[in-house]
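FORM 7B - TANDEM STRUCTURE REPORT

SECTION 1: FIRST PROTEIN
SEQUENCE AND TOKENS:
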Amino acid sequence: MKNSVELLAPISDFASLHAAIEAGADAIYFGLSKFSMRARPSNSFTLEDISKVTSICKKNNVKSYVTLNTVVYNDEINTAHQICDFLKKSDIDAIIASDFAVLTYARSINLPIHLSTQANVSNIESVKFFSQFADVIVLARELTLEQIKDICEKIKKENIQGPSKKNIKIELFAHGALCVAISGKCYMSLAQYNFSANKGSCLHPCRRKYKIIEEDTNQELIIDNHYVMSPKDLCTLPILDKIIDAGVSILKIEGRGKAPEYVYTVIKSYKDALDSIANNTFSNEKITSLLEDLQTVYNRGFWEGGYYLGEKLGKWSNSSGSQSTFKKTYIGKVTNYFSKINVAEVKLEAHLLKENDHIIVIGQTTGVIKHQVKLMKDINKKTIKQANKGETITFESQKKLRKNDQIYLFEKK
């Protein structure tokens, strides 16, 4: 049985794009330097990049969406419209938006729209209203599975259609960071630092430690966790079968600010889970194995099921950074690849490497490759068990590596 649910991957550069495709993503989404909820330059593409992105996607039968989902001010409306005009002429499959300045204009030029979770759609009447603009609606993250199922059933029963004259599809966030605010609408960063979360520039003050002190007595309130506004990451992998049964069509993975190996590992894990559901092999053993894989990359602890199972937000992360079980350490770069014999040549710039070590290779064209080092040799073609910083070595790799691909040691913490 073929899995019919679309798996949507976050990308921030060409390495994560190729990683998403290699891992099995059905679609990708990315932001530009303007009107993106991840507006930092390192997380954004330019308009000039779009043709290359869409070309790669088309070759791999992967859909591509651009996020224009921030608040738009008066002096930005013309720029937003110009970007919509540009995207209309490109091969982008849809935009993801929530501001009416974008929604109304994009609809007027027949640019396909997916409604962002920023719109906080929580009921069927809101679905009906936004169906005049969008073919896909990303529901609020705070709904329960019962509420989601009810919305999906009513769409089908009432034949609620979008501009494409097809029934509205429901998209759901399946994995990744959660904001303590309702569906990500937060003003804390703006109030404290004048960097607006709703303009894509959040400085994440909620991820930090705070003391609560009663002013009159100067007594500190005792709390059970310093990070009382910093929830664990959402993880729905154990309940994916229930989400599919509810009628969800698209599963979105959060993480446009994350590294390529995060994109690869999370997409691959969820793709494996979806395939096993379709093949009736989705078991507790499968879930446990995939959760172990997810824990190897960036995470802040998992809130399994979250709001969707009706749980109250009380699963707080106990640290500001990652709780991944593995770490990556930069060791060097690929200097050559001999395709006839499937051998990579690597210059060790920062760390030693031993036979049987696990590494991650990351490149803007290569994407992400996980590999265990075998048959390592020095420049004299002598087989060695260990190579030190500064040495040039070779090892077998059945997958093609490229010059200047970065090599990282990937080991348990």
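SECTION 2: SECOND PROTEIN
SEQUENCE AND TOKENS:
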Amino acid sequence: MSQTTMRAAVWVCVAIVASVSTHATVSAADGAPESVAEAVTIATELAKATGTRGQTALAAQADRIAAMPADWIVPCLAAFADATPAGGNWLRSSLERAVDRTGDSLPADALMAVVTDRKQSARVRTLAFGWLKDRNPSRAEGLLEGMLDDPALDLRREAIEKQLAAVATADETAQKSTHRQCLAAARDVDQIERIAAWLSEHGEKVDVALVLGFVRNWRVSEAFDNAKGVGFAKAYPPEAALPARPETLQWKTVESADKHGAIDLNAAIATKKGVLAYAVADVVMPRSGPAEVRIGSPCAVAVWVNGKPVMAHEIYHASEAIDQYVATAEFREGTNIVIVKCCQNEQTEPWASDWKFQLRICDSIGSPLATQPTQEKVAE
């Protein structure tokens, strides 16, 4: 039995006990499920929905879930843990309808139990927290006190905002202490930058790139041909040598000064079109195992870790967002070699001139994992 199924079974038992005196079953004429067990079964099936097929049947099942008693809503939440994107939408909309219909009869204690159970999935806990906050703001706000390190990023963000608001009128010493604590806890880029800006305004310079964990020290190759896009699929010498370490003695050493760790290849090599280059970095990992490689670039990119391919995206000038592409790679404890292939095409529009990338290595919630020997302190 999976953990998700076990958790659902536990909540089924809770709901049965809670509702036995009033509505152990619901009349089939009402359209609702006839028992909490059936409700959980329907929720689980909705969560598996894919594509556009069977919409009529899914809508009918969603209507049944929306008609169930308040005590049965929380047990159905467990189905979110393994939901597909489409299934998650179906399940959430039907549960939201049930919540809106039942109003304040949704059991607060059951919601509290879900929110405080960190073994539950982040979206299950976040949804339960939102329902609790709508009905009992004081209890929900009280839970935030212990959520600065919460694995659910939405809950962590709210906890940080609560801490910052609580010291808004305090003396500067207390505010600085709280801002430092919140900076260490924050994972959302906008929140990190806002906290860093406050600290900077109050005399504490913050290295945002270090807080976010960007790899900033690279060795960059010469430019190779990518006319008409031929280079993305072609293995030039640095790539052909894999898994052996590419020869980098004659390559250019580049250290990013950008707050988002960007490596500007136009500046490092030359402003060129229809070319590509390789960048190699040594990163130190605290332990062996999987970690997320997160890269952003307006250009086509491919990434290897210790000679093994991690990802490849042949897309030009669509975006350059932080963490634009994310993939999981296996790392060893100690030094690892990361290689990036960054390809520029031949578009001549001003918005297509950038030839750059930024990369960081994190856990699943964006906590930086990799370090480099030359990195400095976060705050001075």
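SECTION 3: OBSERVATIONS ON SECOND PROTEIN
Residues 217-362 form a domain with the Jelly Rolls fold (CATH 2.60.120.260).
The longest strand covers residues 275-285.

SECTION 4: SIGNATURE
Preparer initials: ____
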